[in-house]
């Protein structure tokens, strides 16, 4: 034991022996004073350990996590999670899509030779049809040019379409211009009769084997689910923003800071990047923050 330790021990012993010799009332007063000193020292140690917080530059994206705002962020994220659950929520829809994707993958793996053969045949059908329909379109265009100046019905139809396109241009109606232009082009496109003739000569993409038709049906369902998932995600995001009162960027930044706080908490690291008020607010809601933002 060092000399300093021996001196402290001696002083403490002398103090205690002196207290014991004092009258009971005086002893109680000194004992109360010692307890107050001990409590004060403990409070000082707690204050020294507790993070003091830092100055944070807030703006219209990085918002201060006050108790009120933190409560709204929690409410918004919980509303988003509620929207994402259930049979029509994004989570259930993704599970359905994943199941169909697995089914499609297994179907293609099991029947790979059938799919390879069909892909080859389909390419041949397409090449043949393109050739047949190209000749039909060329014939139609030649006939149109030969009769356009002599057929009153064709002349009137072209005149009406031209006038309608000019009117749409003048009104700035680009959608109508596009629609009328397509109608004009359709007058020189192959007809349904031409398409059926190409089917007879070349075959049709609809002649696919049953297993290929099944795969096409599965892919169509997957595509539909992808659309539904996007809509469900939009609905969940809207619920989060409405519940929190924040826009998407503000909410994303708040979540990023919350996750940073929780990560450092789990690692028992010193918190940084928060004001003292934010640290108090976050500490009070730690139970609600676990897994909140993912």
SSE blueprint and pairings:
Blueprint: H1 3-21, H2 24-49, H3 67-84, H4 90-110, H5 112-147, H6 152-171, H7 174-186, H8 192-202, H9 210-244, H10 248-266, H11 276-284, H12 286-289
Can you put this structure into words, describing what you see?
- This protein is mostly helical and 294 residues long.
- The chain has two domains: 3-49; 67-289, no CATH class.
- The chain has twelve helices and no strands.
- The chain has helices at residues 3-21, 24-49, 67-84, 90-110, 112-147, 152-171, 174-186, 192-202, 210-244, 248-266, 276-284, 286-289.
- Helix 4 runs antiparallel to helix 9, helix 5 (112-147) packs across helix 8 (192-202) and helix 6 (152-171) packs antiparallel against helix 7 (174-186).
- The radius of gyration is 39 Å and the shape is elongated.
- Mean pLDDT is 84; it is low at 2-22, 24-28 and 41-49.
């Amino acid at each position: 034991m060092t000399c300093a330790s021996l001196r402290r021990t001696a002083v403490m012993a002398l103090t205690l022996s002196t207290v014991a010799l004092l009258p009971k009332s005086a002893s109680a007063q000194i004992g109360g004073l010692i307890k107050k000193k001990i409590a004060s020292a403990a409070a000082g140690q707690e204050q020294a350990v507790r993070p003091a917080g830092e100055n944070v530059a807030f703006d219209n994206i990085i918002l201060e996590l006050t108790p009120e705002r933190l409560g709204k962020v929690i409410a918004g994220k919980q509303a988003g999670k509620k929207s994402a659950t259930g049979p029509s929520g994004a989570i259930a829809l993704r599970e359905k899509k994943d199941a169909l994707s697995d089914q499609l993958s297994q179907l293609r793996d099991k029947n790979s030779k059938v799919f390879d053969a069909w892909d080859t045949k389909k390419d041949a059908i397409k090449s043949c049809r393109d050739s047949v329909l190209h000749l039909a379109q060329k014939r139609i265009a030649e006939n149109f040019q030969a009769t356009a100046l002599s057929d009153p019905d064709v002349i009137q139809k072209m005149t009406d379409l031209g006038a309608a396109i000019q009117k749409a241009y003048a009104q700035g109606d680009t959608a109508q211009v596009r629609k009328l232009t397509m109608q004009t082009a359709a007058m020189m496109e192959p007809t349904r009769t031409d398409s059926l003739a190409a089917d007879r000569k070349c075959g049709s993409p609809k002649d696919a084997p049953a297993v290929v038709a099944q795969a096409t049906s599965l892919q169509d369902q997957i595509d539909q689910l992808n659309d539904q998932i996007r809509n469900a995600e939009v609905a969940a995001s809207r619920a989060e923003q409405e519940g929190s009162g924040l826009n998407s960027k503000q909410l994303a930044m708040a979540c990023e800071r919350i996750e940073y706080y929780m990560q450092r908490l789990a690692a028992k690291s010193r918190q940084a990047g928060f004001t003292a008020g934010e640290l108090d607010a976050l500490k009070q809601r730690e139970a609600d923050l676990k897994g909140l933002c993912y």
